[in-house]
Amino acid sequence: MSNALRLARGSFGRVALLDMDRPLVRHAHPHCHVLLKVEGADTQFSVAERVVPLTDESAVLINAWEPHAYAHFEGQPATVILALYIEPSWLGEFRPNWKASGAPDFFPDPVGATNPRIRSLSRILAEAMVRDPGNEAEHERLLAGLMIAVIERFAAWRDTPASLRLAAASAVDHRIRKATKTMRADPGAVTDIDRLASDVGLSRAHFFRLFEASLNVSPRIYLNVVRMERAVAAVAEGTASFATVSDGLGFSAPAHFSRFFHDHVGSSPTTFRTVSALTRDRF
């Protein structure tokens, strides 16, 4: 069963070392997302409409809010994956226009050929997370070196000023902004997407078309992203029971929440909380 081996969290976002042997459902993240193979079998991800390889020589590169899924095939051996979920504001501390990592075209291609430096830095970071799981400062230092190498090699950050890229990404219809505000305010209370469309003054068909045209994801995927990020924070940082977290996010039963978490995050909530505690309990 797929599970988290280690987790690092901080102002940079989060880094998960995942042992993957089962698919993940189609989902998205509000960060730029980089996947690097550490060991095990070569594998593949579905990004937008393409299936792209994750191997020793290739990285998978996913833009913020870009739908993707882990396309693990039945009987395929497991793969240890270093999954980076990186906050644009943290990257902006290195170069101001790296804040554009939150825009939809930061990585022009969903797959890129790695080099020896990226492969070495990936392994070093993964080993540091295993050896010293609570050393956030060291993890952040190693992650900085890795992300600089990744962006310099793969991102189109020089092509367009960040202000224009971010401005284009933020041009969202006011009714869609109202819908996303409702979802973020209380994702557990949004139980009927058709009712949400009506509440913002749109027919169902128009709402779905306009939502996906504006944000590149369907309303359901957007809502699941919000629920997933709240779930990750609650499981990693909190002490609330999973039943309480489940209820607060609108799941009808804790078992449904556990399945949702595993299908989106790649780990059971129990294991995710356990590896998160390794970080918190260092001192």
Layout of SSEs?
Layout: E1 3-10, E2 13-20, E3 24-27, E4 32-40, E5 43-47, E6 50-54, E7 58-62, E8 68-70, E9 79-86, H1 88-91, E10 111-113, H2 116-131, H3 136-154, H4 162-169, H5 174-185, H6 193-199, H7 204-215, H8 219-237, H9 242-248, H10 254-265, H11 269-280
Antiparallel strand pairs: 1-2, 2-9, 3-8, 4-7, 4-9, 5-6, 5-8, 7-10
Helix pairs in contact: 2-3, 8-11, 9-10
Tell me about this structure.
The strands form 2 sheets. Strands 1-2-9-4-7-10 form a 6-stranded antiparallel beta sheet. The chain has a 4-stranded antiparallel beta sheet with strand order 3-8-5-6. It has helices spanning 88-91, 116-131, 136-154, 162-169, 174-185, 193-199, 204-215, 219-237, 242-248, 254-265, 269-280, and strands at 3-10, 13-20, 24-27, 32-40, 43-47, 50-54, 58-62, 68-70, 79-86, 111-113. With 283 residues, it is an alpha+beta fold. It has 11 helices and 10 strands. It starts with a strand and ends with a helix. Helix 8 crosses helix 11. Strand 1 and strand 2 form a beta hairpin. It has 2 domains: 3-161, Jelly Rolls, CATH 2.60.120; 167-280, Homeodomain-like (Arc Repressor Mutant, subunit A).
